[in-house]
Amino acid sequence: MTKRPPNGTMPINDRIQAEMLDSFDEELELEIDDDRLDALTNEFADHTAEETIDRRVYFKELIRLQGELIKLQTWVQHHKLKVVVIFEGRDSAGKGGVIKRITQRLNPRVCRVAALPAPNERERTQWYFQRYVSHLPAGGEIVLFDRSWYNRAGVERVMGFCTEDEVEEFFRSVPEFERMLVRSGITLIKYWFSITDEEQYLRFMMRIHDPLKQWKLSPMDVESRSRWEQYTKAKEAMLERTHIPEAPWYLVEADDKKKARLNCIAHLLEQIPYQEIKLEPVVLPPRVRNPEYSRGPIPPEMYVPSRY
Question: Fewest CB atoms within 10 A around its CB: which of 21, 29, 231, 243?
Fold first, then answer.
């Protein structure tokens, strides 16, 4: 298999094509299982020249890890654990892609995503952490924060949405806030997705060229490109001030999206000791039929037209 050139050296048109293939892979992920995997990857094996990880290895590992996530989900439910996972990083670093793979095959009633919009006028007058607290898990739940209270140390600070006094108060408060969460029985795991300047530029360019992904490129994302160094300084201060033993930061090298997904999920599984729980087999009861029941007619206009 041809090796992919280092990030930043591949022509933009080739990168766009690679991104389109990656989008194709995303669709396959929703449909495949172990029995169908080899047939699908064999059919499209010649289309993987831009990948750094063999697509067969990627798919097999992803499905295996997702199987382990299901076991973890059952363990969390059974023992009424409370799990919070924070995903932070620069725009286009791949946080959403990892979250999508984690939740892809899990029960949304057990594992849910909290992705809060910008605070409204009322929320701006609240205690800073207040609007995040309502999204914390109850027993038997996993909550994935797609960005979190660390907005204050990142985008809010860099874009001037808060004062330096508010940032300093955040740095004083957040270690105690997180220790309080951990003392309450919450397992708190924090990931920072790290990409290079060149990789972010290429991903932004790919979003510009792909009409299906242009919605991902917000005005704030565009503005962040000119403030790369300011974001770097803010990130360094954040990691230094909030890396605590009770809730340490873990850095994910994310220039290669597929490797980042596998590495992050594998690491997450290692943070919560779990075992497979044997469930009682499901037995369907016999179908009850009432001879007196007769299905009424349905008007033709109620049916969706069969166009395909």
Answer: 243
List, for residues 49-87, the tens digit of each pLDDT value.
Answer: 345 788 889 989 999 999 999 999 999 999 999 999 999
With a cut of 90, say whether residue 209 has pLDDT above it.
no
Helix (H, G, I), strand (E, B) or coil at 247: strand
Tracing tokens 């109850």 back to the chain, one arrives at 138
Tokens standing for residue 169: 């108060």
- Is a pLDDT exceeding 90 seen at residue 248? yes
- The ranges assigned to domains in the chain are 53-120+131-271
Which helix (H) or strand (E) segment is 140 a member of?
none
Q: Angle at CA 23, nearest 5°, toward 18 and 26?
A: 130
Angle at 55 between CA 54 and CA 57, to 5 degrees: 70
Q: What is the pTM of this model?
A: 0.82
Q: What CATH class does 53-120+131-271 carry?
A: alpha beta
